[in-house]
Design goal:
Blueprint: H1 2-19, E1 49-63, E2 75-88, E3 98-103, E4 114-119, E5 123-124, E6 135-141, H2 152-159, E7 164-169, H3 181-202, E8 215-225, H4 227-235, H5 242-251, E9 276-282, H6 294-298, E10 304-309, H7 317-327, E11 333-338, H8 357-363, H9 370-389, E12 420-425
Parallel strand pairs: 1-5, 6-7, 6-8, 8-9, 9-10, 10-11
Antiparallel strand pairs: 1-2, 2-7, 3-4, 11-12
Helix pairs in contact: 2-9, 3-4
Length: about 425
C-alpha cells in the first residue's frame, strides 16, 4: 500500500509540474530555444514579446591588425554590425523573424560561403515597450568564426525576461569574413566595451533612438563563447600574461598593442568598467595556451559564471576552463560542467542533419542533445543574471550540490539533473 501511494504521489507531482508550464501549439513549429518537455524551470520564456533590430556601428581610428607589418601600423574605422533584442509591445499576430547566416568558409575554396536562414520568435522592428524599464544590458560575443546569430536561443530568451540583449558581429571574425587570428586576439574586449559605450550613449533618455530610455547600462553583463569568452574575461579584469603578449608581438611584426590588455600596462586596471556587474563565459579559450597567468586571473573580481564540457578539446578543461575557475580567486565564481561534452556547449543546434561534416560539427555536440544543453544554459544564465543584474531571489537555483546525482537539482524535472556538475567558490 505504501508503495502504491508513493507511485501515485510521484505521478501527481509530475503531472502538476508539466501542467503548470506553457505548451506550444502543435501547428507552431519548433525553433531554437523552445523548451523541451524536460526543460528546467527558468528555461521557459518570460512575459515580454521580443523585438529585434539591426544596428551598424563604427569604431573610429582602430588598429588595422590584419595589415600590420614590421614597419607599418595602419588604423581604420572598424565597422561592427550588432543585433539588438528588446522587450516589445504585444503583437501576437506578427510573423516571427528569419535570421540569415553563412555556412562554409571564406578561406577554403572547397567550402564556398553559402547563406542559410532559420526562424526565431522575435518580431523584426517591433515597437519597443517603453512603458516599462529601463532594462539591464547584456552584450553577447560569439566564437571564431561565428556570428551575432550563433546563440539566438539565448538572446531571444533573455530579452523576453526584461533585458536588452546586443550580440556583436566581430569584424574579421565572422562566418562571412574570418581573417587572421591576430585580429580576434586584439579586438575582442575592445569591441565589447565600445558596444557598451555606444548603447549607453545612443539610448539616453530623450534621444531619438528607438530604445531611448530603455537601457540601464549601469547594470550590464558580458556573455561570450570560446573566443568571446576569452574577450569578456579580459574585459572583466583578467589581464593577459607577458608570455602571451610576446607571442602576439611575434605574430604581428613586433606590435606591442596587446600589452595594453595586460597588467604590465598600469592603465589596464582602469579600463575595467564598473557598469559590468556579471560575466558569463562559455568554454573560454586561452588558458591552455598561456593566455593568463596567476596574477592575471587574480585581477578578475566581477562575479563570473563559467560553462564547459569536461572533454573540451578546443579550450581544454582541467588545464583550461577549470584552471580559470581555480585561479580566479578574487571573483565570486561558478563552473557548470557538462560531463563528457566537448567544446560546443553554447551555440544553436545544427540547422539540418544534412549539412556537410565540417559545418555540422561547427554546431554539434557528440554526446549531449544540443537542444537540451540550450535549455539548461537558459536556466542557469537566467538564474545568475537575474541574481546579479536584477536582484531576484534565485539563489536556490545556484546553491546546489556539486554532483547532480546526489539529488535532483532545484528547478529540474525529477531524474533529469544528470551528467552535470556545479562548482561555486567565493573570494
Amino acid at each position: 500500500m505504501n508503495r502504491t501511494l508513493t507511485i501515485t504521489t510521484i505521478y501527481l507531482v509530475l503531472s502538476l509540474f508539466f501542467l503548470s508550464r506553457p505548451v506550444l501549439s502543435q501547428d507552431d513549429p519548433f525553433v531554437f530555444g523552445d523548451p523541451l518537455p524536460d526543460a528546467p524551470e527558468l528555461a521557459f520564456r518570460g512575459a515580454y514579446q521580443v523585438g529585434v533590430q539591426t544596428l551598424e556601428l563604427i569604431h573610429k581610428d582602430q588598429p588595422d591588425i590584419l595589415n600590420f607589418t614590421e614597419n607599418e601600423r595602419p588604423e581604420y574605422d572598424r565597422p561592427l554590425t550588432v543585433e539588438v533584442w528588446y522587450p516589445a509591445k504585444e503583437n501576437p499576430d506578427a510573423p516571427g523573424v528569419s535570421y540569415r547566416d553563412f555556412l562554409g568558409s571564406p578561406n577554403d575554396p572547397d567550402r564556398p560561403l553559402e547563406p542559410f536562414s532559420f526562424s526565431g520568435r522575435a518580431i523584426r522592428n517591433a515597437t519597443p515597450n517603453q512603458s516599462e524599464g529601463p532594462f539591464p544590458l547584456i552584450i553577447v560575443s560569439h566564437g571564431y568564426p561565428g556570428s551575432r546569430f550563433l546563440m539566438t536561443y539565448l538572446t531571444e530568451n533573455l530579452a523576453s525576461k526584461g533585458y536588452v540583449v546586443v550580440a556583436i558581429d566581430h569584424t574579421e571574425s565572422t562566418h562571412a569574413d574570418a581573417g587572421k587570428f591576430a585580429s580576434t586576439l586584439y579586438h575582442r574586449a575592445l569591441d565589447d566595451y565600445f558596444v557598451l559605450e555606444e548603447m549607453a550613449r545612443l539610448t539616453e533618455l530623450g534621444s531619438e533612438h528607438f530604445l531611448s530610455g530603455m537601457v540601464d547600462a549601469e547594470s550590464t553583463a558580458l556573455v561570450g563563447y570560446s573566443m568571446g569568452g576569452y574577450g569578456v574575461l579580459n574585459a572583466g579584469g583578467a589581464g593577459y600574461s607577458p608570455g602571451f603578449v610576446q607571442a602576439f608581438s611575434q605574430m604581428t611584426g613586433g606590435s606591442k598593442k596587446l600589452a595594453q590588455r595586460s597588467l604590465a600596462d598600469t592603465a589596464y586596471a582602469g579600463t575595467v568598467d564598473p557598469r559590468v556587474k556579471a560575466i558569463v563565459a562559455f568554454a573560454p579559450w586561452g588558458m591552455e595556451r598561456g593566455v593568463w597567468d596567476a596574477e592575471g586571473l587574480e585581477n578578475l573580481r566581477i562575479p563570473t559564471f563559467l560553462i564547459a564540457g569536461s572533454e573540451d578539446d578546443i579550450s581544454g578543461y582541467e588545464e583550461g576552463v577549470k584552471a580559470i575557475y581555480d585561479g580566479a580567486i578574487n571573483a565570486d565564481r561558478y563552473l557548470l560542467t557538462y560531463l563528457n561534452a566537448r567544446h560546443n556547449v553554447a551555440p544553436n543546434p545544427p540547422v539540418s542533419p544534412d549539412l556537410d561534416q565540417p559545418d555540422y560539427m561547427h554546431y554539434s555536440e557528440p554526446v549531449w542533445k544540443e537542444r537540451r544543453i540550450n535549455n539548461i544554459n537558459q536556466h542557469f544564465v537566467t538564474a545568475f543574471l537575474g541574481l546579479h543584474l536584477k536582484g531576484l531571489d534565485y539563489e536556490s537555483f545556484l546553491d546546489l550540490p556539486e554532483n547532480s546525482l546526489e539529488e535532483t537539482w532545484e528547478g529540474f524535472v525529477p531524474r533529469t539533473s544528470i551528467g552535470l556538475e556545479l562548482r561555486h567558490a567565493e573570494p
